[in-house]
Amino acid sequence: MFPKPFKKLHPNILEKLESLEITTPTPVQSSSIPVIKSGSNLFCTAPKESGKTTTLILTTLQKLKCEAVGDAPRAIVLVENKEKALELYDQFLAYTKYNSLRVYVAYEKMHIDLQKSEILEGLDILISTPKNMNKLFLLNGVNTAELKIFSIDDAEFLSQQSDYAALLSITQSIKKCQYVLYSEKLAPKLKRFENYFMEYSKIISI
């Protein structure tokens, strides 16, 4: 029997957790999963290896009810670079193997027109870097009408001005969605997002 907050997750997710022998949530998962499920914007800070990325994956799957719908992305995840994007893509695939969710990864080295056409073919979860995502947004390559959740993994890299500016540009084009930012510490520069797109956000620190 799964303890809270795992207990209330989609049966498809529970099945996967069982096969991975993950039965007990980490402190960061216990604190953050209910808040993310409630729909609040959230700054989630915790040390390395505390389960933040798994939290990101579980809550994204939960939000999308583990099934493909339509063509436009319903979840966007930003990461620092191509390596992180591909790593996260593989981690997502481990969880989406037996459901219909479509995960797509886009990064700088890929031709932007190829990315646009592949994205238009339909996907549910889009993983990319801020600069690449901003380029796609400027070329109208991403339809955000169905977007439900926007997560940023290991957000420390946003201290770089170019990534910071790209993120602000992206979020200006999004009408309404939930934002969740994961980092080890809540640096003042990250907290400043409250004034832009992280309104009424909650903070969880482990």
From TrEMBL:
GO terms for molecular function: helicase activity. It comes from Mesonia profundi. Keywords: ATP-binding, Helicase, Hydrolase, Nucleotide-binding. Pfam families: DEAD (PF00270). Residues 33-190 form the Helicase ATP-binding domain. Coiled coil: none annotated. The lineage of its organism: Bacteria, Pseudomonadati, Bacteroidota, Flavobacteriia, Flavobacteriales. This is DEAD/DEAH box helicase. It comes from the Bacteria. SMART domains: DEXDc.
